[in-house]
Specification:
The protein is α+β, with helices and mostly antiparallel strands. It is built from 28 helices and 13 strands. The strands form two sheets. Strands 1, 2, 3, 4, 5 and 6 form a six-stranded mixed beta sheet that branches. The longest helix is centred in the first third of the chain and has 24 residues. The chain is elongated.
Amino acid sequence: MLDKVKTPEKKVRSLRWFRSIAAMLCFLALTSWALPEGQKNAIYYNKIAAEHLRKGDTLKAIVNYKHALQKNPRYKEALVGLGQAYLKTEAHEEALKLFSDALKLDRNNLEAVVGSGFANIGMGYYQQALKEFEKALGISGENLEARFGMASLYYDMGKKIWARRKLDNILRLNPFHYDALLLMAQIKSDEKRLKEAKEFVEKAINADRELPEGYIVYGRIFLSEYLNTGSDGYLNDAIHEFGNALALRPDNIIANRYMGYVSLLQKNYDMALQYFEKSLSPFPDNAISLYNLGVTSDLGGRIDPALKYFARSQEQAPYDSLLLARFEDYLVLNEFKAGHPSRVGFSNDHLSLAADRMKKNLSEQAVFHLRRSVLMNPMNRKARELLRDYYYAHGYHRYYVDEIKDLLRLYPEDRYQDMLNIAVIKRRDMLYQREGFAQEPPPRDVPRVLVLDFWPSSGMSPHVDAGQVIAGYISFALGQYGRMDAVGFKKRREISGGLEAGDEKLERSIEKITRLTGEGKLDKIDYLVYGHYSEGTHFLSTEFKIMDFKTGVVIGEFGISESGHENLARLALRAALRLYEFIPYRGKILKVADRKVLMNLGMMDGVTKDDLFVVYRQGDSGREHKYNPKKKILLKVDESDTLLTSLSTVKEGDVDVVEVNDIIYPLKKRRARMIK
């Protein structure tokens, strides 16, 4: 807390005297400019705007910069200043245009070049941002703002070590660089070095107590501690610091946004709406503020306002993958009809993405988007036909037949009936038909996985419920491969209250899952997936942990980062693939005859001809599966279809000790097969 800062009394009196004199001089300067309206020119308004911007009063700065540009549209200082003010309101596209206009007047305007870099960061154009900062350093190699821009860029890209090195250099040259101190504090907080983080924040606040950003970062640190520990003391400290920021600048976007987050944590949806609405006042088309208003309205049962907020947010940020995924979830969970324009629009968007990925031979991504297209609009004939064709081309006959049946049900046409008749005739040659599984699919013993909502690495993220959206997309991706039964997002939403992924709170979540399972409200869970995330503009970074729910042992950890548009879909698919590597790949013996063995794994599980499997004998308890090293029983794949495989023993006589219900694993650990 600020009152913990130890400053000698004399230094405090001296500092107060200096600030009083400075304030008086500023007042005299401003009043000297208090000219009659007719005599106020562009220079006058620009000077007033610059002073407001320096003090953090963004709204007044914007108003006066606009007055200056009305007087002189080619006034480059006002163009740059207005662009800088827009950056603080997250109006990055508008800011970039202003910087571009200034550069047309002066192509080497250093402030405009640096501002363009920050605007590009905000829009997720990292390579262009890098070019702008390099250009700025080419103009002036000692420019600290360009160096800070590089540090900010690296931080947004998840390269925190590089960012820290840049900040170290800046602070050696200027130990009181306000923005560098705050970004360093944020990095220290991310690294859980909270004492050091607070020291950097306090130094920034002491450098300028009239700016709200220092108090906001301080609040973020306390909020992060609250999320990790659940201590109400940290939450109260966070509220206090955010309140300090709002006391200075009641219209500050970020401070109002964080107070909205806090209100959501307290389930005070009315108060959250008020704060998020205030975060819109500087720039009514702010996509993140609109998104958070949509989420809050949805959680508070205000379905129609939520739709309007999500739609407006999408208009402003059409490539925000977290926003689009959350909007889709909202439409499905609130049971909007499949023919709703937004559902149809999303379905067609996914179809277009699928077609693009097919052209690029990215089949796993194509299938993901086709499945998403069908989810959003089950009546999308084109998406279903492409899925049908994919299953046919890759030999997934059962899924091929299922898609034809769905098409025939939705569109009772002769051509679909003919396709089905032909498929049924061809079915006689399939392994599952010959083995008597034509009507009933073979029983499967796939792991059941619950993906918990991911936890923000530090404080809250711009998208207030990004962790839930990420978890939902990963759960959806797991369903693509057919090897896991992931708890769907509807059921996840029903049970999510009180389930938390933070390591410190995981035990309580496990207790709740166990209770819900015992009450029959949740099917048995084999594995938990949880972790942390951080986000930047068009950037996601995630850290995963996989726990064997029966033993409580963490069997694997890994991290994934993705940037650019559609980063969420790529991240979810990569995560699904990695999860298959860690979670045991196993099947069960269904039949034993002669030297032939039938198991309930198939091509959709990644089984290919001549693969080797090892049999695990069932223990005496009937609950454990033990491998007998003295009698190694190996089976080789002879034939496989969608979900079923025929194997033969490698050695004669081994089949005599193989029994129905024996567990079977691949001989060697292998990578999961991606859908091609």
